[in-house]
Amino acid sequence: MLNQTPASSTALPAQRRAPASAKAEQRVRDILRVGREVFAELGYERATTTEIAQRLGVSEATVFTYFRGKRELCMRVIGDWYDEIIAATEAGLPRDRPVREQLEFMVHTHLRLFLIQGTGLCELVLSEGRSKGQELGEAFVALQRRYTAPLMDLLARGQARGELRRDIPLRLLRSLVFGPMEHVLWEVVITGRQIEVEQSARDLVALLWPALQAPDHELQALRRLRDELARALAQS
Known about the structure:
mainly alpha
């Protein structure tokens, strides 16, 4: 799904001009807000900086004051959206619970927030992610890597705790999780049919868990329970 590339080639494009005042900062926020609306409605190819400027009631030159062009603006829009989802995931992740419960929370959050503003941004990300040689280029790959980092961390912790299998590379385990979620999201995008997000998350994890969990995980859990009971009895 994602290929490792040198950090120098995946760096996100720098914003053209950093806001120097509160007024400029508000202008950037407005451009990003309207940019999100336009990219969600029209997709990357049909969206234009002219349309964004017209909806905002400013000149196109104003947009170019802060962003070099459509590509840079779109990357920032997607990056900010990803950051919102990552923040929500990390804030609510029940790290003290078993890996399966954490995974279910992560899947649920991903589906819910990818669809919470409709399917526009969802379709944009899915289509650009599947388009070979697309204009957004390697910077989009870097964004995808950043977005999937929380799942990679969970999978690594699951392996370290002996709850997930260690004979499969993390990148393949990641693809095993994201692949079915993408298919669910594409179905919503294509058909317009809504899904029950919480139930869909439970169903997906129930389907994936037998392939993800360590073969002897349940046996190890029973042994730990036996040992804990033995210690409790010895102390009573």
